[in-house]
Amino acid sequence: MKNILIVGAGFSGAVIARELAEQGHRLTVIDQREHVAGNCHSARDAETDVMVHVYGPHIFHTDHERVWEYINRHGEMIPFVNRVKAVSKGRVYSLPINLHTINQFFGKTLAPDEARAFLESQADLSIESPQTFEEQALRFVGKSLYEAFFEGYTRKQWGVSPSELPASILKRLPVRFNYDDNYYSHRYQGMPRDGYTRIVESILDHPGIEVRLQTRYEPAMRQAADHVFWTGPLDAWFGFDLGRLGYRTLDFETVRCDGDLQGTAVINYCDSDVPYTRISEHKYFSPWEKHEKSIAYREYSRLCGEDDIPYYPIRLVKDKALLQQYVDRAREEKGVTFVGRLATYRYLDMDVTIKEALDVSDAVKPALEAGARL
Length: 374
Ligand code: FAD
Ligand code: UDP
Description:
Helix content is about 35%, strand content about 20%. The protein is of the alpha/beta class. Bound molecules: flavin-adenine dinucleotide (FAD) and uridine-5'-diphosphate.
């Protein structure tokens, strides 16, 4: 049996703790916050009784059977489809770009093949292999749709021109030539009936796991553990001594009202003269509940300062160069494994986070079983 310290009680830390506790090890999971579940934390708002996604909207979607089974073992998932609306120049459209968006935007009634041919006529075909976000958009949806839906939003979200961002960010969104307005394409999509925090609490509910909240990692804690799993920021482990990896942080402006505010879960605001990127009306994430009052978040994105919560890794060229230096050092570190979205400096959806945590656990179990040092 090993004494293992896990820093961070988000999905990454919780899943590894549970897997190794079931193998008979003793786990201590610490988190500097006063709750588990990391950025997926959800809690009922005292005034409206609505389940709030405290750090921004989270919709569970996956194609991984094992991950879907895992999450369902720890809480009831209710089918949920995210249907996002987007406001551009004072009009409401459907996102991701689908046949309805194309027909509404261009005032047409095109059939799928006609719409495909029409967008080809809008596209900049001289861009053979798009590298940047802007090139990807101009190549696949053309200038008008790019300017209406992506340029302003992306500048607000990332703080730089889309010509400085990688094409991979836009590739997260499909373009559909039918009326399917489901934001995601995954087979399993759902929302936990009792919120994400209850799920993470259930994962951590094992006699071999001790959870200590409001506990920040101190290097001295390392001595008492046979091994550490670090799910905090990679650069924080090294005391930021080579500099800080760039993140965007979010500010949420809370709005409460009687009745409904906007009538759906998420509306994106694509114009640059609106300062926020989107509004999330939380009761629409639990449509099986009835509430007379409503609570919504207006979401603002800005550069992450030293005391802010890191949300989105920026991953511009200078960040990638610094990342490589930290990765080289991390490879030399003994007795610590870096896991999760912050420690690997990547944008990871919840399902990928759980999948990677299960994979890491699978990989270390044989060595732990044999009593070896990791
Ligand atoms: P985290 O949840 O960040 O957990 C890390 C924990 O480590 C935190 O609780 C932190 O307090 C703790 N910690 C850090 N440093 C220390 C320290 N020094 N001492 C003690 N504790 C420390 N995914 C989806 O699948 N669907 C979505 O719709 C979705 N929406 C998102 C919306 C937003 C705005 C964001 C930012 C992310 C979204 N995600 C979504 C991604 C999701 O949040 C992540 O997949 C998930 O949070 C990753 O879990 P994690 O455990 O790796 O990290
Ligand atoms: N995006 C945009 N307009 C929108 C929605 C998204 O320009 O209305 C861009 C934006 O740059 C965003 C990216 O597309 O970061 C990926 O969208 P997604 O919804 O996956 O963003 P996230 O979940 O990261 O907020």
